[in-house]
Structures are given as C-alpha cells and as structure tokens.
Amino acid sequence: MKALRNLRLLTQLTSIRHASSGANRPLKVLTKHYDEISIPVPWGHIAGKWYGPKHVRPLVGMHGWQDNAGTFDTLAPMLPNHISFLSIDMPGHGLSSWLPPGISYHSIDYVLVTRRLMEEYNWDKISIMAHSMSSINGFVFCALFPDKVDMFIGLDVLKPPVRSARHIVDALSERLEATLKLERRLRSGSEPPCYAWDELETRLHEGSNKSVSMESCKYLLQRNCKPSTHEPHKYYFSRDNRLKTSLFYTLHNEVPLEMASRIKCPHLFIKALQAPYYERKEYYDATLVELRKNPLFEYNELDGTHHVHLNEPEKVAPIINSFINKYRPL
C-alpha cells in the first residue's frame, strides 16, 4: 500500500467533465501524462495513448471487444516508470478508423494490425499486454510469430475458444445476415440511439454483465461516445456497430493446442475468478497443460470480474510489474 500511495503522489489528478441531467459534474481521475498518437494504416489510422518517452520501445496495450484504449487508464499509472506504454484503439473502436464499407471485422485482422504496428515503428520485437478479445489475438500472434515477441501478458481470456460444429455453422449464418442488416442501417445515415450520460453508464455497466463497474464506465466512455447532433445533452455510442457482427476464430480443438506449443516467449496469464471461461473448461485446462511446458509461462488467478484490471488495478499491477521487471528490467 505504501508503494501505491507513493505512486499516486507521482501521478497527476485530472478533471473530466461530462453532462448529467443537464448539469456539468467534475470527475476526478487518477492518470498519468500521455500523448495521443495516430498510426497510419491503409484504411485510415490507429489511435493510441503513449505514456512515457518515445525512444523507449513500449509495452503495447490491446483492449477487449467493443472496449478501447481507456481500458488501461487506471492501470497505466501503476506500471514501472522505466518502460513506455502504448494503449491502442483497435479498428472500429475508440478513436481509430472504421474499416471501409462492405468489409466485415474478423479476429485475424487484429493480428495483422500488430504486424503493421511493428513495421511502422521498425520494431524487431514487440511486448504485448492484452485483455479479452486481444488476449486471444495476442495468443495467436505469439504462436504465428514466436520470434517477434519478447513478452506477452494475457488478461482473463486465454485463447481462441473451442465451439461445437453446430454452434460454428449457426453463428456464421446469423452474423452474416446481421451484417447485411447493419449495413442497410449505416447507409441510411441515421444517428444511433442517444442517451443521457447516466444512461450511457448504466447501459455500458449492464451490457458488460456488470463486469465494468459503474465507477469505471467513464474511462471507456471518453473514447466510446459522441454528443448527439439532434438531442441536446445526449450522447450515442460511437464505435462501429459492425463490431457486433464480428467474425471470430472457428478452430478445431487441436489448433489452439498446436498454437500453445509454439509460444516460447515469457508469457504471463491472469485469470479473473468471477469471469466465465467462455468455453468448456476441459479445453481451457488442456491448453494450460501445453503452455506450462514453456518454462517462461506464469499463471495467476485473482478475485474480480472480467474487467478487474480496470476496476481494481491495484490487484493486478504487482503481478504484472514483477513480470515486467524480470523480463524488461531497468
């Protein structure tokens, strides 16, 4: 606790203001100086928040499905000061460009985004800290490019989940139809449904199955909503609605096991005990057996929801910092 108090003395409190019931209300947010950056990609740009010096190759933070770079706002000030940290918005999320019309989002695209990021900055290696959807993609990246990762920290979701053949076929049919429906709505140019700020917080909280605490909603909403052009004091969710019909990995159980066998870098995984496994636990456990063959793999469990890193970063930071200091010391 003493270290945490000292850290808070080194950080700065900024005030975020938002509208609620027609009145501005200040919110105190523990934060640390960062620069907004824009990384060019063929369809536009990837937005991000860079903490620390630019000449130090950063630990790259990658968020979960329909979240954004704000997912690490509370954890970033607690990371070691000797390492830079870059938290990015994936395509269609936060402040990053949407994919072009007619293109669907697929998990493998985010793996390619990671390679694009490395090429932009001429990095031979990358250090990754990833949550949920991005933890899955980080797992895949480490398997496909084992020599390009010097450190991987996965939060709560271990790997691509295994689904039954019936589930895969049904889901593909449903998502493709839903994609066409969403595209028709997007072509109409109509503004998405709008809400008062307090309603936005409630919808985000409940939409995450109460994984994101009410107090933590503001960190995601800062990059996830825009003011309505038609209704004063109301806002709408500004992420790409096509994310709701994203196409995810459809893999046979042997594929994640093969992937796990190829991960050789230092690998930390933290499981939140109040979060589901998102698949039959036997598949999860089998992959853990394979991952533990890597002498650089570390596994931790702790109490908290799927977003424990955002809600209670003080629980997660000591584990992560110990790992960082071991493999990327001062």
UniProtKB/TrEMBL annotation:
Cell inner membrane: present as a keyword of the record? no
Asked if the Swiss-Prot or TrEMBL record annotates the protein with the keyword Cytoplasm, the reply is: no
Instruction: Give a GO cellular-component term.
Output: membrane
GO: which molecular function terms?
hydrolase activity
| InterPro entries listed in its UniProt record | AB_hydrolase_1, AB_hydrolase_fold, AB_hydrolase_sf
Signal peptide annotation: none
- Using the record's annotation, list all stretches that form the AB hydrolase-1 domain: 58-157
Q: Which UniProt keywords apply?
A: Hydrolase
Q: Which family does it belong to?
A: Belongs to the AB hydrolase superfamily.
Name under which the protein is recorded: Probable serine hydrolase
Organism, scientific name: Drosophila madeirensis (Fruit fly)
